[in-house]
Specification:
The complex is a heterodimer of chains A (about 150) and B (about 120). Chain A is an all-alpha fold and about 150 residues long. Helices cover about 60% and strands about 0% of the residues of chain A. Helices cover about 80% and strands about 0% of the residues of chain B. Classes of the chains: A mainly alpha (about 150), B mainly alpha (about 120).
């Protein structure tokens, strides 16, 4: 069904081209989200525990997504899909809620107003990530032989 | 933060970042120019760190959250180092682009840091 698998007979052990850029941008976003979350929780957690917990969760998901993009194995490929889908869901749901029920999100989170505070990168990036993942799939047949099983 | 110094840093980071991105997309591997621009951004950030520590002693105190300010600053300082290592390990057009993305990210962080320091709250 997906012809790109045929075009990668020997899986590259490392990610190439745009994939690297994706990893870099995800890394920067993970760093920014973690920093913001750290500051929020350290200084004013009681002000908006729901929003700030959400920020912390988002930061962790971004970190895992960054790692999942770097590590090319069947398991990490699945994890990449799960985390990136979760982020997209998160930014869409929280973005919508922050507009419809602003009272819930008076304090900024990384997903508020669809990631407006971060130049809408949190909205666009998961879409790019999904595009890239679908173009560079890892199945058991093309997974790099690393000497350890990639999935259970 | 000192306004003119912030503007100086932005004047290096934004054109430098755009330069790296364009040069990278054109297909160039990291060169002295692109690595140098990133290194200059980093040096200015270190100076910024020193300035931020000293400034309150000279009467220029932050109006916003110092925790948030220093979190941004530390994050910003880490970025060019990471990107620089990446560019040294893997010399490709994309590592040049990544140098550029890093410089632009630092620019955004500098802008936020200036807001935190000079404009009340965040």
């Amino acid at each position: 069904m997906n012809d790109s698998e045929v075009h990668e007979p020997a899986a590259k052990p490392r990610v190439s081209g745009i994939g690297r850029l994706l990893i870099a941008v995800y890394g920067v976003l993970a760093l920014a989200a973690t920093g913001r979350s750290f500051v929020q929780i350290a200084s004013e957690f009681t002000d908006a525990p729901l929003a700030y917990s959400l920020s912390a969760l988002a930061a962790v998901v971004y970190i895992i997504a960054t790692i999942a993009l770097i590590k090319r194995s069947v398991l990490w490929y699945k994890i990449a899909w799960i985390t990136i889908s979760f982020e997209l869901l998160g930014v869409l749901v929280v973005g919508t809620l922050s507009l419809l029920e602003p009272a819930l999100f008076q304090h900024k989170t990384v997903w508020s107003v669809f990631g407006q505070g971060y130049g809408f990168v949190p909205l666009v990036l998961p879409l790019l990530g999904m595009w890239w993942l679908s173009r560079h799939p890892i199945s058991a047949a093309v997974a790099p032989r690393t000497g350890r099983k990639g999935s259970e | 933060m000192i306004d003119w110094f912030t503007w100086l840093q932005l004047a290096v980071a934004v054109p430098g970042g755009l330069l790296c991105i364009i040069v990278g997309l054109v297909g160039r591997k990291p060169t002295d120019l692109t690595m140098g621009a990133t290194a200059l951004v980093e040096v200015l950030l270190i100076v910024q760190l020193a300035a931020a520590v000293i400034a309150p002693l000279a009467g220029n105190a932050a109006t916003g959250s110092l925790l948030e300010f220093y979190t941004y600053l530390v994050s910003a300082i880490l970025l060019p180092v990471a990107a620089g290592f990446w560019a040294l390990v893997e010399r490709s057009r994309w590592s040049t682009v990544i140098l550029g993305v890093t410089c632009l990210s630092v620019a955004v962080m500098l802008y936020r840091m200036n807001q935190i320091w000079n404009v009340q709250g965040s």
